[in-house]
Amino acid sequence: MSGHSHFATIKRQKAVNDAAKGNLFSKMARAIMIAAKSGGDPDMNFKLRFEIDKARAVSMPKENIERAIAKATTEAANLEEITYEGFGPGGIGVMIEVASDNKNRTAQEIKNLFDRAGGSMGGPNSVAFNFESKGFMVIKKKDDPDAQMLQLIDAGAEDMEDIGSSFEIYVAPDKLGQIHKALVAAGFEVTETELQMKPKNFVTVTDPSTAGKIMKFIDEVESHDDVQNVFINADIPDDVMSKI
Prior knowledge:
The chain is about 45% helix and about 25% strand. The chain is of the alpha+beta class. The chain has three domains: about 1-80, Integrase, N-terminal zinc-binding domain (Arc Repressor Mutant, subunit A), CATH 1.10.10; about 80-130 and about 200-240, YebC, transcriptional regulation domain (Alpha-Beta Plaits), CATH 3.30.70.980; about 130-200, YebC, transcriptional regulation domain (Alpha-Beta Plaits, 2-Layer Sandwich), CATH 3.30.70. The longest helix is centred in the first third of the chain and has 16 residues, at about 1-15. The radius of gyration is 18 Å and the shape is globular.
């Protein structure tokens, strides 16, 4: 799945670059507000801890983070978490997680994005059946990668991929916090942690033009203020990605 990993790497780089667009901090604030609805102490609320760590990774100011937590019982009360699904360019499956204070408006705008890309928004479970919730972490490699892989498997890694200087691992979603805590305590450097919708099957994209349309579509969806996460089942090989 090297193509999929390569796409994930581009997504990570893009997240940092998007900080300059202005709407990334707004998205981060919404995610923090929603997470803080379950409690404002990050030591007791692991989802909040994840969202704060992600915000810090893109240099979100401390005062912005604190302000978002404070709004958890006010503005966050009006935010509704919704997942839309559909088919993007090349027939790829797309899962879009949003936080909206106006469900009807957001639904129409997301549908318009699908339509403009030549795709279509689907009904419930039209795409979701091919995705499963997983805990996701990126672990920086140590001096002995082979021994490290065995340790990660013993810790609960269900799937793992070598992406050069790090490992991407997937774990049971309900054990993400527990495993993260154990890995950090064991001296592992965890550079990324989140809940993801992982595809069960992938659509391999071999046409650079289609790959370009997919990347443009994802960029437009992610630019929408209400969109929090986008997951796709496209496998774009490195050589195809290099021609976009």
